[in-house]
Design brief:
Rossmann fold; alpha/beta; globular; 172 residues; 6-stranded mixed beta sheet
Length: 172
């Protein structure tokens, strides 16, 4: 009986760990955003920064099956590469291995002069991507990884989605 009770208590105290992939083109600010590991109540978010150089992107799909959320970081100041950015993002969200995975786009470098407005990025996201996505939830948030603006909101968004995703999968 003691083992049963201690096993049950141990199970209740165990923290659920979720893998979050951080992707985006090179120089988008992914590594600046990278926090490694965050513990919130009974949940651990483990962040994996996948390099954005063209040669490295070919390995991204190897990580999709094990992820619980995707964060795609956009350099809001790089208007010249925005089409490439959306094309790369589309490759990610149309891959069947990320079906049902919460996906968050972070419009980084919002503190920089000349940054695209987050509303414009949301419109592009809605126009170009939403109909092609098969994710449980998707969103766009403004951040400045360098200054830390918007990071807490992004982490809260992720925590809520992965936690709710797990809860709903328990009842499927």
């Amino acid at each position: 009986m003691y083992r049963l009770v201690t096993g049950f208590v141990s199970h209740l105290m165990q923290k659920q760990e979720y893998s979050v992939l951080i992707m985006g083109l090179d120089n988008a600010g992914k590594t600046t955003f990278l926090v490694g590991r965050i513990t919130l109540s009974s949940t651990v978010l483990q962040f994996w920064d996948l390099g954005g150089q063209r040669d490295i992107r070919s390995i991204w799909p190897k990580y999709y099956a094990e992820c619980h959320a995707v964060v795609f970081v956009i350099d809001s100041t790089d208007k010249e590469r925005i089409e490439e950015c959306w094309a790369v993002f589309e490759e990610i969200v149309t891959d069947s291995r990320v079906d049902g995975v919460p996906t968050l786009v972070l419009a980084n470098k919002q503190d920089c002069e000349g940054a695209m407005a987050v509303e414009d990025i949301k419109q592009m996201f809605n126009k170009l991507i939403v109909g092609k996505m098969n994710v449980s939830e998707g969103g766009v948030l403004p951040i400045s990884a360098l200054r830390g603006d918007g990071i807490r909101e992004a982490v809260d968004w992720l925590f809520l989605r992965v936690h709710n995703s797990r809860q709903s999968s328990l009842y499927d």
